[in-house]
Design a protein that fits this description.
alpha/beta, Alkaline Phosphatase, subunit A, Alpha-Beta Plaits, 2 domains, eight-stranded mixed β-sheet, six-stranded antiparallel β-sheet, about 20% strand, disordered N terminus
Length: about 425
């Protein structure tokens, strides 16, 4: 069914009573040109894989790692770089993945808060009265300042126990129902449920150790946003009392106050039957919002490959996520980042044996180990398929990608490139 435009800005009516945010002009063009075929596309996102060259660290993790399979694939591929958001903009994981899926991340209608992503990633169904937040347990010193923003990366079992403790103590505040849900390790969701709430509330995470947590503040004059901020602050105060005796997770911060934005789906836009293979809830959440079937899988790369093999005949688009290239970069752990890259390289051989018509390997953002966090730099990109214009690059690395034939593109344009290489786009115009 063709989108029917409404007077409401930034929204279209796809079916009766279901309003979703308007597809971008590029998405509408792809929707018009897309055709259903039997060809299969594999998009591998090595989270935070990219690095940078500095005077003190002239080689990146990709360049240090021994990657015979990636390098062999590069010799029959087109390489380049992808800019996840815009020049100089450091993206979070949500915007970085949305861009790879073809949603312009800087369009306000496509902005999705971390809370919604985490909630969808653990299969929690949000309704119109819910504002979701992503929470981090943290460690506070005697002076109430943060000494560890991730509470020592407590195990998931410990995080779940503390969430249950909070849920038992805080079920409702001023008529607002409170949901406290474990996600993974030190991450959790807090969801506020009542009519008359709004997500225009600032994060309480100062993003640095040595500082106190911030109060929740509405950043608009909306009464609903002010109400949400007030409830959040009351929740935080009660939560601090409840977990004050915890040895590591004796504090928390809330981030990404958000509601479900309602995105146009992969099926509607690209005529694909997509699935997602990812271990971490956030990435499962992004995929779910894009309309992908999110599959149950194990926690290792090898287990993810086994999941891919098991469902190979059921889907035509596979989003395959590798997490620990990112977390190792955030920890500044070069050796472990190299190890994860090499682990994936070994698994790549089995993925290639499945015979995808098009395979792409990239990242959602760079996480250079020298920066210990996300960065604004373009990420390495490899695209391989029988219709690719193969260049003369010899390895999958930042330096080789810089001189590849794709050049530097915006990540949101990648879906068009993948569909075209897979023979899934008709000609534009006569």
């Amino acid at each position: 069914m063709k989108p029917v435009f409404r007077e409401a800005p930034g929204a279209i009516l796809i079916e009766p009573r279901k309003v979703i945010h308007m597809a971008t002009a590029r998405q509408q063009l792809l929707q018009k040109l897309a055709v259903k075929t039997d060809s299969k596309i594999v998009l591998i996102v090595m989270d935070g894989v990219g690095g940078i060259h500095t005077m003190n660290s002239p080689k990146t993790a990709l360049e240090i790692a021994k990657t015979p399979n990636l390098d062999a694939l590069a010799t029959r591929s087109a390489l380049g770089r992808a800019n996840p958001a815009d020049v100089g903009i450091t993206p979070g994981s949500g915007p970085g993945h949305l861009a790879l899926f073809g949603y312009d991340p800087i369009v306000p209608a496509h902005e999705i808060g971390r809370g919604v992503l985490e909630a969808c990633g653990i299969n929690f169904r949000l309704n119109e009265n819910m504002v979701a937040t992503r929470g981090n347990f943290c460690t506070l010193g005697a002076d109430k300042k943060i000494t560890d923003r991730r509470a020592g990366r407590i195990p998931s079992e410990e995080g779940a126990r503390i969430c249950a403790k909070l849920q038992a103590a805080i079920k409702e505040i001023d008529g607002v129902k409170i949901h406290v849900l474990p996600v993974k390790e030190y991450r959790f969701c807090t969801i506020f449920e009542a009519p008359g709430l709004a997500p225009e509330v600032l994060d309480t995470d100062p993003q640095k150790v040595g500082l106190e947590t911030l109060p929740a503040k509405a950043f608009t004059d909306s009464a609903a946003a002010k109400k949400t901020a007030d409830i959040a602050n009351k929740f935080i105060a009660k939560a601090f009392e409840t977990i004050a005796d915890e040895p590591k997770a004796n504090g928390l911060v809330l981030r990404g106050f958000s509601v479900d934005p309602g995105l146009p789906s992969f099926q509607d836009l690209y005529k694909l039957n997509p699935c997602a293979i990812a271990t971490y809830p956030l990435y499962r959440g992004v995929a779910s919002l894009a309309g992908m079937k999110v599959l149950e899988t194990g926690q290792t790369i090898a287990e993810e490959v086994e999941t891919l093999k098991a469902v190979w005949n059921e889907y035509d688009f596979f989003f395959f996520h590798v997490k620990k290239t990112d977390s190792s970069g955030e920890d500044g752990n070069l050796d472990y980042k190299v190890h994860v890259i090499e682990e994936f390289d070994a698994a790549l051989a089995d993925i290639l044996k499945l015979g995808p018509n098009v395979i792409a390997i990239t990242g959602d953002h760079c996480t250079p180990y020298v920066m210990k966090g996300h960065s604004f730099h373009p990420v390495p990109l490899l695209v391989c398929g029988e219709n690719c214009d193969v260049d003369d690059t010899k390895a999958f690395s930042e330096s080789e990608c810089l001189r590849g034939s794709i050049g530097t593109i915006y990540s949101e344009k990648l879906m068009g490139l993948l569909l075209a290489n897979a023979g899934k786009l008709n000609k534009f115009g006569s």
